[in-house]
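Changelog-adjacent note: as of this version, every example in the card shows the full chain rather than a window. The one below runs 333 residues end to end.
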Amino acid sequence: MSSEWNIAIADELKSITDNATWEIVDLPTGRTPVKCRWVFRVKRGAEGKVIRYKARLVAKGFTQRYGIDYLETFAPVVKLTSLRIILALAAARNYEIDQTDIRTAYLLGKLEEEIYMEIPEGLTVEENIQGASGSSARKKKVCKLLKGLYGLKQSGRIWNQEWDRHLVGTCGFTRSKNDHAVYLKKDAESDNYCWVLIWVDDVLWIGPQAMVDKGKAMLAIQFAVTDLGRAHYFLGIQIVQLPRQITLNQATYIEKILERCNMANAYTVSTPLNPGTQLESLTGTRTHIHDSTPEVEDWDADETEYRSMIGSLMYPMLCTQPDIAFTVGALSR
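Full-length structure tokens:
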């Protein structure tokens, strides 16, 4: 297992070097460098299978100071309403739905602010340099960031600006006025359209296969992309495409919630509580009923866990509750 993570770290450092993300300099007097850390994640597909191991060098953006290290931070992502509407149009027009991933997207935007970061763990630099008098002096070496990095407060914004300049200025797409993460291009010789939807570094291409392939090829000229082919899993939503029909579900996402809440083996019931049950406020204890025998145990309510459960349930409710199927017949009604 450790070999996979070592490879992932090496890939991340190579991407940082290839993109000229920073340069090693002496820390200027009076400046405090931003801290950083490694974050590891296993990326899985729609069926829960491991796709790849990812290592991200993340800056601790909470140590940045407003007005000095950053100003604006807003960056748009596609609205769930826009996603459903355009997928419905794709079903009606029988369009292809492809997906691409922008590799190390946050490393592509150019920083305007002057930001210094501590040397990350695993990267060795020489700190002994010659002082002005010729004697050996030890100065603190840091990374002067030239481009964005995951964790910086403004990284999402400067990446989105870089993306927008290329897609609109070079590829000829038009950005929607109602959803700034949706782009549209019309074929000059037909009534066909190609939509591009972006959520940070995940991109959906919707349109005739020829227009989609051309758009992806133009994007690959500017950015390093991973072509994932036909879209199957986007934002925790499984996309099943049939001729003139698209079905969305979040079965894998819901299974993860149940496992996290220790309810993977629970059964559904129509009435979780007996009709007429009176709820009472308990302090420090709660009662379990097993075979009609009350059992009292100490209990401290975990509000954080409860909020996490509710938030996890709200996401599938907003996306696919109930499971959504777009068909030509449904659109005609």
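Structural remarks: Residues 303-320 form the longest helix (18 residues).
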